[in-house]
Amino acid sequence: xxxxxxxxxxxxxxxxxxxxxxxxxxxxxxxxxxxxxxxxxxxxxxxxxxxxxxxxxxxxxxxxxxxxxxxxxxxxxxxxxxxxxxxxxxxxxxxxxxxxxxxxxxxxxxxxxxxxxxxxxxxxxxxxxxxxxxxxxxxxxxxxxxxxxxxxxxxxxxxxxxxxxxxxxxxxxxxxxxxxxxxxxxxxxxxxxxxxxxxxxxxxxxxxxxxxxxxxxxxxxxxxxxxxxxxxxxxxxxxxxxxxxxxxxxxxxxxxxxxxxxxxxxxxxxxxxxxxxxxxxxxxxxxxxxxxxxxxxxxxxxxxxxxxxxxxxxxxxxxxxxxxxxxxxxxxxxxxxxxxxxxxxxxxxxxxxxxxxxxxxxxxxxxxxxxxxxxxxxxxxxxxxxxxxxxxxxxxxxxxxxxxxxxxxxxxxxxxxxxxxxxxxxxxxxxxxxxxxxxxxxxxxxxxxxxxxxxxxxxxxxxxxxxxxxxxxxxxxxxxxxxxxxxxxxxxxxxxxxxxxxxxxxxxxxxxxxxxxxxxxxxxxxxxxxxxxxxxxxxxxxxxxxxxxxxxxxxxxxxxxxxxxxxxxxxxxxxxxxxxxxxxxxxxxxxxxxxxxxxxxxxxxxxxxxxxxxxxxxxxxxxxxxxxxxxxxxxxxxxxxxxxxxxxxxxxxxxxxxxxxxxxxxxxxxxxxxxxxxxxxxxxxxxxxxxxxxxxxxxxxxxxxxxxxxxxxxxxxxxxxxxxxxxxxxxxxxxxxx
Length: 738
What we know:
Shape: elongated
CATH topology of the largest domain: Growth Hormone, Chain: A
Number of domains: 4
Distance between the termini: 45 Å
Largest sheet: 5 strands, mixed
Pfam families: PTR2
CATH superfamily of the largest domain: MFS general substrate transporter like domains
Strand content: 15-25%
Helix content: 40-55%
Subcellular location: Apical cell membrane; Cytoplasmic vesicle, Phagosome membrane; Membrane
CATH class of the largest domain: Mainly Alpha
Radius of gyration: 33 Å
Number of helices: 17
CATH architecture of the largest domain: Up-down Bundle
GO molecular function, one term: symporter activity
Structural class: alpha+beta
Keywords: Cell membrane, Cytoplasmic vesicle, Glycoprotein, Immunity, Innate immunity, Membrane, Peptide transport, Phosphoprotein, Protein transport, Symport, Transmembrane, Transmembrane helix, Transport
Subunit structure: Interacts (via extracellular domain region) with trypsin.
């Protein structure tokens, strides 16, 4: 991107570089004197240095924009899962479809900037689209605004606008900053790009840490505050736009200079179509298939495209690496929801684990450059660029093998899910004495038999098999000298709680369907059973209220912050009282029974429905370290190698192709998530093995690749245009014979 500002000098299609300006006809007529042009006033500098003041606006703009993008993206998967209530596969697919679109649209943004509006206007206009997308996305996260369909439509429209905005300005901002420097200040421009990319990492690092806190630590409308988590990044994008516009009067604004990507595509297409039209055996073959473009395009451009295609051939296997790398925000975040985020000092939200990637990138880049690569070199190992990229692929593959091992460990520590024609049942005895519960099957056979003491529950969920998808289950309850037969309707793949209660001198039962998501949310959740004869209103926090019906009414599960709850305010129609709920652990699901069996007033009897996630979220650290090390070796080295192997006029084409590999990688994840049907650990193993196979193919391609020396790219090429020479070959396109 830094060298894009030099492209105009090498672009053979610029109209203002006509040879008529070099060889003008001599005229005997008097030429009127030209007016003297006064030198332009130099742009203001920063503190007397050679750095233009305008780059300060651009760097701040980039920091705010990256904060906006990565902050919004950090909470996106959990928003799909818990707010829009999509399943994990759909959430993953839409997440990667959005990521893919963000890497397709830079080609559109570059075309608009280079061929029509110029970089400045493109950034302004598409930033407005960007801001509009954030506004729509934030509105889609307001629970009070419409129903499920409205939220879904607003979310998808908002994400589409954001993808157009962020992708459209991506190729323009860095290059526009480079345009602010004069050619004699090349060293300052290089340092500017270092600061520019530092601002990208800083924005990503800070936002990935802060926005999950806005989502999880702040409650609005009685649940996680996704509207705030999306609104703050939107506000940062407004600031980015305002700051960028403030520097309008001091920017250098080069006019549109033509899109080299379009020229390359046209050149390749003409060569292919021309070769197809002239496939007769009478026409002599040419040394290279791109030589068939010689009738229309200059030799220099054809030579540059030849060098470009050699590098693009090596790009074919690259999307698989991005398919693995970009799952940090989707599959790995979903994995973190089933782990314990309590690290003792603080509680880490599942989507906050993504902060490890930018943090480790900042650590690993100098570590690899200054230590690891030098040690490897001193050991006599020639670690070429292609070898570094292959090692990066292997590290990413190992990261997913580790992720699969962690997933298997999680599955062993979490309760099983009921399958087809199965239910999970627990029994809760709220009577004043022991009750013997028997679940009856066909011909009064015993499926389950348990004796449960007063105010106790079964220590586990019992797995019961059904004959159909839904049926009536029959229960035999023995209490004192009484026997009670009852039945309740159940449906497959669900969790149920059978609540036994006193009914005068007799007992009765109530079947309650438990929420499926209570074991996968990873957050602290509570529900209440009210044994009082009056409705109870419970205030769990300043913005979390719930009502529990009288006479054994059961509330839904409500997520709360972990911590101490010594005095929770409650209210009935005639009195106020407080309940001591004690310490609520992270990731635990609790059941509280509100009773009034003593003279001390209403009290809460506490039980754990689902124990806390036992596996610490810190077990994800090895996989993040491996995949980030792979990213440093693959991504940084890949771009550096690509730029060294192609002419400077092709740099922007290489950047576009590199972004396209990222887009294709996200499409691979989308397809696998939707159609593989594998359990999660097996899917991780699949990606790990696929990348190993791709790494092998890439290594073979790299073995036969002959690197071009940089000085070979700088040799002057013959500028003659073939079709102006007398010895040209006339083809069928000219309607003549050889």
